[in-house]
Predict the 3D structure of the following.
Amino acid sequence: MNNKPTYISREGLEKLRQELEETVSIRRPEVAGRIHDAKEHGDLSENAEYEDAKNEQAFVEGRIQTLEALIKNATLIDEHHSKDLVQIGSSVTVDGPDGKETFTIVGSTEARPTEGRISNESPVGRSLLGRKKGDKITVRVPAGDISYTVLGIA
């Protein structure tokens, strides 16, 4: 399993812990119950219910492992970050091809580009890290190069 740090907000870490708790205490027993019930129906070689439950069990166990690794490797984003330099947790206002935009730099587990929350590992997020107000950057993305000017950091 990957041991690189997972940058995450306190709120995001709490959501992961809640999902892990729910998955372990509710979903895992539900799936085990489905497997037990399917076994009661006899011949397992032609039992679609059993196959489906086993596949779901594999998914649930994989998700539990993923959540445990994310929580174990969690590095909390500093809520009192610098307003001079862009870092993980910063909200950055930029002027770009689409006009004025604001991005919040977050870890990859909390990235939601449609909501303006971009990963520190994304091309734009990576290019903004360490920049300060007034800096101009050019980001190479699959669609071509995009230029931004940093207008403000919060």
User: Anything to note?
Assistant: The mean pLDDT is 90. Residues 10-40 form the longest helix (31 residues).
